[in-house]
Give the backbone structure.
Amino acid sequence: MSWIDSDEHLGDIVLTEEQIHERVHELGAQITKDYAGRSPLLIGVLKGAFVFITDLARSIDLPVSVDFMAVSSYGSATKTSGVVRIIKDLDIDLTDQDVIVVEDIVESGLTLNYLVRNLRSRKPQSLAICTLLRKEGEQHSAIQVDYVGFAIPPTFVVGYGLDTAERYRNLPFISNYRV
Ligand code: IMP
Ligand code: MG
């Protein structure tokens, strides 16, 4: 028996390892088609996207580059405020790059909105957004997301990179989290 089975906070599995695997490969195939002949730069938003971006990058049959940014949003553990601080900036210059921002989850879109405005000011050739999860329901800021893995109900989830207080990122599936 694994620690997962006896963890009282883990609720129903929202997405199994197989479902995620299949969908990530579909996203990779779509990006491969859409960016044919180009070499996109994947920008992973740390830390949540670290699992997704490794699987996604290997599902794209193009010569991609990978870079990371770490941001911290002021606010409580489960709500974002939209005020974002850059903790780790990119190493790569974005001028003339085909950028794909890779996120774990978009809820209000506030974090992403800030990031995208910041990245656009660096004059990339193009900028697209790819998120594994998008929470359904009221979106505070209308943000156009180009690639969405799954739309999920607005409950708190963990696993496959997503955490609560830095835990559960290594779950191979995505599970509801009960306080
Ligand atoms: P937004 O700015 O409201 O879109 O919030 C996005 C960020 O909040 C994500 O990058 C996550 O770090 C965090 N977040 C939102 N919902 C969840 C969740 O259900 N589980 C874990 N983290 C979440
Ligand atoms: Mg987080």
Notes: The mean pLDDT is 93. The pocket of magnesium ion (ligand 2) is lined by residues 48, 163 (CB under 6 Å). The radius of gyration is 16 Å. Helices lie at 17-34, 50-59, 110-120.
